[in-house]
Structure formats: C-alpha cells, structure tokens
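Minutes, structural biology subgroup

Action item carried over from last meeting: produce the structure token record for 15-cis-phytoene synthase (Glycine soja). EB confirmed the sequence was re-checked against the source entry. Recorded below for completeness.
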Amino acid sequence: MSGVLLWVSCGPKENPISIVGLGGRGGRSQRRFGLCNGISFASFSPAVADPSRSSEERVYEVVLKQAALVKEQDKGTKRALNLDKPTIEGDLTNGDLLSDAYDRCGEVCAEYAKTFYLGTQLMTQERRKAIWAIYVWCRRTDELVDGPNASHITPKALDRWEQRLSDVFEGRPYDMYDAALSDTVSKYPVDIQPFKDMIEGMRLDLRKSRYNSFDELYLYCYYVAGTVGLMSVPVMGIAPESKATTESVYNAALALGIANQLTNILRDVGEDARRGRVYLPQDELAQAGLTDDDIFRGKVTDKWRNFMKGQIQRARMFFDEAEKGVSELNSASRWPVWASLLLYGQILDSIEANDYNNFTKRAYVGKVKKLLSLPAAYGRALLGPQKLTKMVTRSM
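Output recorded by EB:
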C-alpha cells in the first residue's frame, strides 16, 4: 500500500491520478502493465535510518541534500543541465533507441495516469520525457510488491532491484525503461537517495502491517510517496521569478506526497482491513477508544467519526502546506501538480459525504467533478508565485 506523488504519486496505494499521480500505489484492481517481466533481480541503508530523531527531522536531511544539489547546479559548481548530451553509455547509445525508450515511458503514463499525462503536455519536451521516465521507474518499483508477481518478491529481490538502480545512475541500464531514467538523471540534478528510500518503503510493505504512531506512519508515507516529489522537482524546475527558498519548494513537494498517501490510507481503510492491514496510528486509535477489531468489524460509530475527522484534518494540513510551493514551480509544470492537489483533496470531501464510512464505501471523485477541476487547476497554474500569494491574502 503506497502511493506516485508527481508531484506524481505512484506509491503503493493507488496511482493518485498521478501526480498526479507524484501519490499512491497503483490500484490493485487495474490491469497491470508488464513492466517488471524478465527482471533479473548490496543492500543499502535508507537515508533516514537513525531512530534517535523524529521522522520529520530525518526526512528533512534528505530534503536539504536534494535542495543543495539544485543550488550547486545553479551556481555552476555541479554538472550543468545538459540537454544536448548524446545518450548514455552502453548498448543503448543509438539516439533513435533512446527516443523510443522515452516514447515507451510516455505510453505507460498515458495508460495508467491519464490526468497526469495530460498535464505533462504543457511541459517542454525534455522535461516531459524526464518526468515520464521517473514515473515509470516508480510504477515498476511499486509493482514489485503490489503487482501480479508480488507473492514471489523477497527482500533479496528488492536488494537486487536497488543494485540495479545504482547501475542505472552510473549509466548501465538493463532495458529501455532503465535507459530513459539513466539519461534523465545524467541531465538533471536528481539524487539517488529518494529512489533508494522508495525501495525501502517496498521493504516495509513486505514486513510491516501496523504503525504504532504517526511518526512511524509519516516515515512510511515519505518512503512510498513523498520521495516522488523530491525526484520530480529537479526536473519540473522552480520559476525564475520565485522568491521562495529551494528548501521550501522541496518541503511543499514532500507535503503533497504525504497528503496524497494519507488520503489513500483514509480512502482504503476497509480494503486494507480485508487484507489484514491497518495503516492508522495505533496510539491514536487507542486514544479514540478504538482497536483493530473495530476496524475489522467495519461499523461506523461516533467514536469512528470523531477519529476520522482528526485524520482528515491532518491530511488537509499537509495539502495546505503543499499549496505554498506549487505556484513556485516552473509555469509549464504547475498544471499537473495543481490537478493532483485539487482532485485528491476532493477524495477527503467524499469520505465526509459518505458519513465517514470508508469500510464499505469507496470515496472517489466522479468524472464530471474531475473535468470541472482541470480548468480550475489550469487557472491556478497560470498564476505566478506573487500573483497567487496576493490572491490568497485578499481572500483571507
């Protein structure tokens, strides 16, 4: 159960329309694209493994590291953005083959993240292709533990997938999809750590079905969804006129991933319970006078309603934090992110409209509402950082 923010959210819960997917693991009921077929599956420690500090403190170190890469590039002290780089090394050095690889990534996006794919059409060609490549890697990673072959996946298989990731970052792709990602990370200041951390989220799904506190759950949400924002911002770019700090933009991307994944969790309480999983903080359930048995019974009570109100409020706080950074992105990259934010926020509205019955009723956004939200997202995307700030200030 995760989620691909894209910012894109593709983690284990459902493909948050991915962003716009950068938000939840691909829907289990959807047809699967055989992205991991034929994978021949060095283990690395996750960047946030130190248990002595809070999850937010540990994750923030990854945010700072990625922001520093972008700053170094802007100063010209790191690799410059090289959109004319011929291709990666190895067998896939033919420009036509690399172009085909990106096209294949685009096809996967169009198949499984239609809204996000539509939003990417406003990006420059190079940014668009790079985002497709990241999306496909996230989806393939998610399918390892949530796809048709999930029952055969072991921790060692994930170790081999992580070693393969390192090879991709070093210019040694295994197939066409890898080639597209390898080319992308050679052109943009993308750090490998968020990719490794997403794999760590898959490891958690193999061994963990309960989370004792929100601190534990936050870390899981970062692994499976917040990471996507950190992968994507270097490609999407920050608006030249933005006065926001690089760290604050990355924090907003992280917040959107967390918000999307929390929304996935709240939407899928009943579905997860039927699989023996509870992705809700155990200490907060206890404080509300609830237990796992109450969830397995699936009866909406006043205690459940009050508990859900608090969980929804928290998710909305993360969406509010995310809004602060969307307008700071490059203008051509804002639309898919705004679409993700607005559409996923409406899932929370739907849970409320269902009287908090997320045991037997699935909260969703209907096609009409989706279509109506896209122009609203596009309108917000047209506003630059300062204009949107002034608009929000006047409405308060």
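Discussion: The chain has 16 helices and two strands.
Next step: EB to file the record with the rest of the batch.
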